[in-house]
């Protein structure tokens, strides 16, 4: 694997999931693979699971880990090409990346959507600079439009929880929130589900359709009850409007996932990428109930990251 | 040892101190014990000694260390059960803990008293959530009412500095400060001294008596001169009022420990957990004088932590 | 090497550069040298290259690394001797250092000029406390008046890029900036160049002469064109006025380094310590052009630090 910023970097998803499950069985089987090599984890945004799971994954592979909280530990970065840097920004992102090229064998970066300019976010104004200037493999720890390490963990979790011989019905359902949230997790989950052998539908209120370039021909239903019917997996996630970018059009129905809503499903397993707003996105009952596989999903973040780092190290070591 | 949040988690204090002194002699004698295991150090508050000594202790045992500055690197946590999370908090503490369960073999947490609600602090509103939800051993790096790793280091330091054959007189004396400080270090020191073979008294101004559930039948003296007489060890520490919670009732006498006050003692050794407000809590002369064993005490934080982590690893490895 | 805070700590500069180049050839040749030892990296200021390169250097030597962002992770430190600490400061720097003495085998510290009191900065009010109170070797990660790890990396980079048999002409040229910047990099580069076998001149506008105690008898030219003529290396760096301390006297000419200005040189290699304000200090064309050896210089920060840590470990291990 040469880099990892979307599902298109994965040649064979079934193989990757299989490898991740093997790593989960024996996470310390490759402790020499990363020896003498360094991964830089660059955080332009907050992180808990991604931060910790990436570190564990890297340590399990024997990698040296450099963590940089860019804004707090370094300084404000400039992102505009050709900028006359006579303002608040202290270093251009491309210079920071060129320095990371000198210091790291893998660069992993977390760079959320700014939620101000649709164009900037759609064009991945930050991640694209890493893709352009990095001379070592780049791993996305969530970018403006995608969260692929999360999506791979989601796939692993679905496979682990599905032993029946028919295709599971997987529903990605929008959930309420109190502020505008990026579409990255939703977009990404849609892309990955399209590569999985599942029946996938998306449920969201009108005005909240995700970017068509991610959802493609996935069925989008504007009625949550209808969408959840007979679901085997329900993925709960908020996102703000894509069309009216970053807006939060009024939603009259209550889309919070409750235990009552699970009754109409096929004893659906409930997923969420965390952090979750309890009793806003889903109820305590669902979060703490037996249908939730949310913590298992969080654990699989380790094996998602470790598999990706391991594949990338294979590529590096083969040179 | 199954967890470490107070002296009651220690079966045999003399044995633990003996082990700590052995570890101090040879800190690199157990570098394989923690191999392949991960300790999460979660800081909800600032830290210097605890942060560094815990990392050294963990590294000495071969543990992987994950450090999380929760507020800065992740986000605001919700602590109220059943909360409708439509405000500033982004993730519920119990979800964060459940995720730490997936990632760590030991969870260590620093969570100061909030100093606003006596009930919350007395009930250890944060630590209790860790004790309730953690499925791996929990270590307190200081909580609302106790600082047990400090107290164990204090015991080690007293034993190291006492070669005579009679019981030493140990005085915990209140000291001035400029803002309301928690009672945790004082409470905890009282609890541990009650388990030690020492004559222990507490000196504090009226209005500053510590919680009786910690001091029990320890003699509390409201006159510093009287208390310090013939002292072998003096532990200097400020705390705010427990009765009138977090208040700072006026104190007319000057309780700052000075060299003059040492004259009446048995050449007492002076202790403080640090950080110390020089020339407020104690004078430069005392801090920098030959009676001070304060830096030795700081050093013993390593061996206190290493002993506890080692004992907990024994328990984990025995399963 | 007993400590490393200026060029005067280096006995034989040619030998040190030679060693650094050997380490660059084989950075993993001494992975056991630091085993069981701990380096504390204390940041009182922001850092990107220094932070990352120091960590890599330490890891390459097998050292345990403790990183402390003092203000964010610990608290405000008091620097005044004899202070009555009844204000904002929580711990005296000398107590913090004494604790670091207990925890670390090497203490490395970054402490910028405060840019308020010329006297404090000239006297290295912070670093001097480390030099006074540290009982283990101290390494400067940049102080008020010097940046010696940068300067050593600069020397390595010049040697790597000079194969001709005559002395190269090295020009340190002032560059514009938007706010007052310390003189540390300029001072330090001057000191080190005086020890190198080069023709060294400094170019800066009137009012911006560096402290004579650093520049000594180095030729200072107030006309940039004249200074750059036939240059083999150009080091671009801003600094504020030393005479009128931290002021920014008006400069009428444009001192930004542009491609046009390179025409008059001997195809000069361009250097900068980074971070750089693009199109303020130098133009995009120069930064991204073939004359720039700036990223190579950044890479050499690893080997500069590793050489120094290695030399200090030799001293420690010889005891």
TrEMBL record, chains A, B, C:
Pfam families, per database record: OTCace, OTCace_N
GO MF: amino acid binding; ornithine carbamoyltransferase activity
Keywords carried by this UniProt record: Amino-acid biosynthesis, Arginine biosynthesis, Transferase
Aspartate/ornithine carbamoyltransferase Asp/Orn-binding domain mapped to chain residues: 185-309
Chemical reaction(s) catalysed: N(2)-succinyl-L-ornithine + carbamoyl phosphate = N(2)-succinyl-L-citrulline + phosphate + H(+)
Domain Aspartate/ornithine carbamoyltransferase carbamoyl-P binding: 2-160
Binding residues for N(2)-succinyl-L-ornithine: 142, 177, 237, 277
Record has Disulfide bond as a keyword: no
Record has Transferase as a keyword: yes
Residues annotated as binding carbamoyl phosphate: 47-50, 75, 110, 147-150, 273-274, 301
InterPro entries per record: ArgF'-like (IPR043696), Asp/Orn_carbamoyltranf_P-bd (IPR006132), Asp/Orn_carbamoylTrfase (IPR006130), Asp/Orn_carbamoylTrfase_sf (IPR036901), Asp_carbamoyltransf_Asp/Orn-bd (IPR006131)
Pathway(s) this gene product operates in, as recorded in its UniProt entry: Amino-acid biosynthesis; L-arginine biosynthesis
GO BP terms: citrulline biosynthetic process; L-arginine biosynthetic process via ornithine
Entry EC no(s): 2.1.3.11
Similarity comment: family membership: Belongs to the aspartate/ornithine carbamoyltransferase superfamily. SOTCase family.
Function: Catalyzes the transfer of the carbamoyl group from carbamoyl phosphate to the delta-amino group of N(2)-succinyl-L-ornithine to produce N(2)-succinyl-L-citrulline. Is essential for arginine biosynthesis.
Complexes and interactors: Homotrimer.
The protein's name in its UniProt record: N-succinylornithine carbamoyltransferase
Taxonomic source organism: Chryseobacterium luteum
């Amino acid at each position: 694997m040469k880099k990892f910023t979307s599902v298109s970097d994965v040649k064979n998803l079934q193989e990757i999931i299989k490898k991740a499950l093997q790593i989960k069985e024996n996470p310390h089987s490759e402790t020499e693979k990363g020896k003498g090599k360094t991964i830089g984890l660059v955080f332009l945004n907050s992180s808990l699971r991604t931060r910790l799971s990436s570190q564990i994954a890297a340590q399990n592979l024997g990698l040296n880990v450099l963590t940089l909280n860019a804004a707090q530990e370094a300084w404000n970065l400039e992102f505009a090409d050709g900028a006359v840097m006579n303002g608040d920004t202290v270093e251009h992102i491309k210079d920071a990346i060129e320095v990371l090229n000198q210091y790291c064998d893998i660069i992993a970066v977390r760079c959320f959507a700014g939620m101000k300019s649709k164009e900037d976010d759609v064009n991945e104004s930050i991640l694209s600079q890493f893709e352009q200037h990095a001379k070592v493999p780049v791993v996305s720890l969530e970018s403006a439009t995608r969260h692929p390490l999360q999506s791979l963990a989601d796939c692993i979790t679905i496979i682990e929880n599905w032993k029946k011989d028919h295709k599971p019905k997987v529903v990605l359902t929008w959930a309420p929130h109190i502020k505008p949230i990026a579409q990255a997790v939703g977009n990404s989950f849609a892309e990955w589900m399209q590569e999985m052998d599942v029946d996938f539908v998306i449920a969201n209120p009108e005005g909240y359709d995700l970017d068509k370039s991610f959802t493609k021909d996935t069925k989008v239903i504007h009625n949550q009850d209808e969408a959840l019917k007979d679901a085997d997996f329900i993925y709960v996630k908020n996102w703000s409007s894509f069309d009216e970018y970053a807006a939060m059009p009024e939603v009259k129905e209550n889309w919070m996932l409750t235990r009552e809503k699970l009754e109409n499903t096929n004893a659906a397993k409930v997923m969420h990428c965390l952090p979750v707003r309890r009793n806003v996105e889903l109820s305590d009952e669902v979060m703490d109930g037996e249908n939730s596989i949310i913590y298992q999903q969080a654990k699989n973040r380790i094996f998602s990251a470790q598999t990706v780092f391991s594949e990338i190290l294979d590529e590096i070591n083969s040179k």
